[in-house]
Design a protein that fits this description.
16-stranded antiparallel beta sheet; elongated; outer membrane lipoprotein receptor (LolB), chain A; mainly beta
């Protein structure tokens, strides 16, 4: 038994010894200057396994005992082939000699030699690209985020990648780790997408760039041969590429072309001036790829390096300068190997939750293909869980400091019902919503007092939903409130209160409504909502009760018109919207259609129909993240029967020189209305393209946009007879008396958020109006 035990122990020890791994490490330097060579490529001859040197020129491979042939290469250097015997942990430093510069025969031509080289590269790329149907690889990715110059976080991962023609890259994360200040679920390190610079169109961060070997590349780039190098006994052409246009997304930098196959074997580029990201200032992006030859036919990326630096600033506050770098080492290619269809049914990035549940230190030791630099090693030691990214990148500035606190003030503000208008004066009260007292039921209540009209207002209601997702419900509300003639909602309570208090400009016309409504609500999808309601209300005219103003005490408020009095108005109202909800202040364009239909009767029946469609169509610069676009709003309304004044239509106008998209900028408040109307407003936002075209760096670097805009409208009123009669104790609304029109231009993205417009009224009486607004960002 003892002999058997010793025999088993010997066999196990022998097997373990055969599997023992040793570390081969070293530094790659310039043989002439002794400077380190970052990103030098190291491969084991006869395999697709290898790595690249880190920022300090250091490399590391974990190998079993044996003798290996190392092929070390770096662009602009002669490759080095050496044999290394590995019997223990081994250090093997390598010095690369600068490549010979081949002096071609001097031939005087009208074009640079690079142009003919690129013609051949464009013509030859299909020869090998069409033969590449699929591939898999193993990859390691490290992402380093810096605040100013100090490392803020490190995230790393090992992934397996899968690609096939007519699909996109899929990756499965097998292992990941990060500094202690980053939660595992926020580690998104991966190759992400291998940019194929042989493609005609290269999609990157929302932009579509013209590739350096695109069929039309010679129309977009100027190429210049910088030098011809000798590598592996073959010529390598180093070529500079310079964009011919500032308006089209293009790359600028250098590329390397193999002299025998005219294949792309290296890129070092950055985007041209057309590339910009909202709110990002002083941006810099550099993208580098090195390629290796596989199976004597296919040039595949062996490493990808992305370096980004940016300053993010918005008026009032800024974020500390950000530097981001990503290095991906790609090895072990399997070309044209079959890949299960199930792989391409997965998301682009899939995490093997079982494998990443714990950090396998043995796996990381055996696969450490990119050694940490000294600075990165210190970051893993010094960064702890208290140094989260939101702490390190906390915004600075007045706006942010004003908003600091525990949020209690904002929470209390949700219960306040405060506003100001010329009828109630100061309107103050409390409001509350309760959606968790009873399952699938929402209760709401508010009560407020008007200090000038000396009347209480209230609303009490509830909605019972049929499903947990609250898409369908039935509700009831009982109220007494100061209501106003329907409008498109361009100006909310806060803005209207401010213009009333400061300059006596109250945009709305009011009446008192007391009664209730019973309604059905439906939201069948994220882009559709509908409500049908039965209303029974008493309508009473109200008059101006407040003359208060801070800055315009000598001015007078616009009179509040009387309404048709209803003791018991019964009506059915159907409202709906198809399209996503409007973003706050209209900063994001959305295609939508809103409509409302009301039928009422209190002895004098009437019906009211209205609708508004808003849409945006990309026009110029479609390859940009945010292309130029034509934006339009078409609104119309009509009626039948005896339409009461409180249900008539108004053309939407600027208010106190503030004009959001959709209103008429040169029109006075409530200047035109009637029982029917038609209105079109439109604008074409050229973005920064005009300033890129004429070359005004201050404007395009600050993302300033140029806009032309205009609109036409007309109103009709059946209550007019010979141009003037009194209806319900008041004159009818003034109609346009023909077509109203205006046109102008503007500048947007001033301090990122503002726009300024200059508008000329073309209809009589003609005038000019300067207005401000909020920029449309997307």
């Amino acid at each position: 038994m003892k002999r058997l035990y010793l025999l088993l122990l010997t066999l196990i020890s022998t097997h373990a010894g055969a599997q023992e791994l040793f570390t081969l490490r070293g530094t790659i330097k310039n043989a002439a200057t002794r400077e380190q060579l970052p990103a030098a490529n190291i491969r084991l001859a006869g395999t697709s396994h290898g790595t690249v040197a880190n920022a300090d020129g250091e490399f590391r491979l974990l190998l079993r005992e044996g003798t290996y042939t190392l092929i070390v290469s770096s662009l602009a250097y002669k490759p080095d082939t050496s044999t290394v015997a590995v019997h223990a942990d081994t250090r093997h430093d390598i010095a690369l000699t600068p490549a010979d510069i081949v002096l071609p025969e001097v031939v005087v031509t009208s074009e640079d030699p690079a142009v003919e080289i690129m013609r051949r590269a464009i013509a030859n790329k299909k020869k090998w690209m069409d033969r590449l149907q699929s591939f898999t690889f193993e990859a390691f990715t490290r992402q380093v985020l810096k605040r100013d110059t100090a490392i803020a976080s490190i995230t790393e991962s090992f992934t397996t990648g899968y690609w096939q023609q007519s699909d996109t890259l899929r990756e499965i994360v097998k292992q990941k780790r990060q500094t202690k200040n980053v939660k595992s679920e926020f580690n998104f390190a991966s190759v992400g997408r291998i940019l194929n610079f042989n493609e005609d169109e290269i999609r990157f961060i929302g932009y579509t760039f013209v590739g350096p070997t695109a069929a039309e590349a010679l129309d977009y780039y100027d190429y210049k041969l910088l030098r011809t190098l000798s590598s592996h006994g073959k010529d390598v052409y180093e070529i500079s590429m310079t964009p011919r246009s500032r308006t089209a997304p293009l790359f600028e930098g250098t590329i390397n072309i193999a002299g025998d196959s005219y294949a792309l074997m290296g890129v070092d580029v950055h985007p041209n001036e057309s590339f910009s990201i909202p709110f990002v200032k002083e941006q810099f992006l550099r993208y580098r790829q090195q390629f290796g030859l596989y199976e004597q036919s296919f040039w595949m990326p062996t490493d990808i390096r992305i370096d980004v630096s940016a300053t993010i600033g918005i008026i009032g506050f800024s974020i500390p300068p950000i530097t981001f770098s990503q290095t991906s080492v790609i090895t072990d290619y399997a070309l044209n190997a079959p890949i299960p269809d199930s792989v391409f049914q997965k998301p682009r990035l899939t995490i093997d939750t079982i494998a990443v549940a714990t950090i396998d230190s043995g796996y990381w030791h055996q696969n450490n293909v990119l050694p940490l630099t000294v600075e990165e090693t210190q970051a893993y030691t010094s960064l702890d869980s208290t140094q989260t990214l939101d702490v390190q990148f906390r915004p600075r500035g007045i706006s942010f400091q004003v908003g600091m606190g525990d949020g209690s003030a904002l929470a209390y503000g949700n219960f306040l019902d405060v506003s100001f208008n010329r009828v109630e004066g100061f309107h103050g009260g409390l409001k509350a919503e309760f959606d968790s007292l009873i399952n699938q039921t929402e209760f709401r209540a508010n009560i407020a007092y008007g200090f000038s009209d000396k009347r209480w207002k209230y609303n009490f209601g509830a909605t019972v939903f049929a499903t947990r997702d609250r898409r369908f419900g039935i509700g009831i509300d009982v109220y007494r409130k100061i209501d106003h003639r329907p409008d498109a909602g361009f100006y909310g309570d806060i803005y209207n209160s401010l213009t009333s208090i400061f300059v006596k400009n109250d945009y709305r016309d009011y009446y008192q409504a007391e009664g209730g409504k019973l309604f059905l609500t439906a939201r069948p999808s994220e882009i559709a909502r509908f409500e049908i309601a039965f209303l029974q209300e008493e309508h009473v005219s109200v008059s101006q009760r407040s003359d208060f103003s801070i800055f315009a005490r000598s001015r007078s408020y616009r009179p509040n018109p009387p309404v048709r009095m209803f003791k018991e108005l019964k009506s059915i109202l159907l409202e709906g919207r198809i399209g996503r909800e409007e973003a706050p202040l209209g900063i994001v364009s959305s295609n939508s259609f809103d409509f409302a239909v009301e039928s009422g009767d209190d002895g004098s029946p009437f019906a009211r129909y209205s609708g508004a469609a808003t849409f945006s169509v990309p026009t110029l610069g479609r390859s940009r993240l945010i292309p130029a676009a034509l934006r339009m709003r078409v609104a119309a309304g009509t009626s039948s029967g005896q339409l009461p004044p409180q249900r008539k239509f108004d053309l939407e106008s600027a208010s106190s020189n503030v004009a959001p998209f959709g209103v008429f900028k040169a029109m006075n408040v409530k200047e035109f209305g009637g029982t029917s109307f038609f209105a079109i407003t439109m604008e074409h936002n050229f973005r920064s393209l005009p300033f890129l075209a004429v070359g005004i760096p201050f404007l395009y670097k600050n993302n300033i946009e140029f806009i032309v805009h205009g609109g036409v409208a007309r109103t009709w009123d059946r209550d007019h007879l010979d141009g003037y009669i009194y209806v319900y104790g008041q004159p009818p609304l003034q109609t346009t008396g023909g077509w109203y029109s205006e046109a102008g231009f503007g500048f947007s993205r001033i301090f990122e958020f503002l726009r300024a417009d200059f508008t000329w009224r073309l209809s009589s009486p003609s005038n000019f109006r300067f207005t401000l607004g909020v920029a449309n960002l997307f």
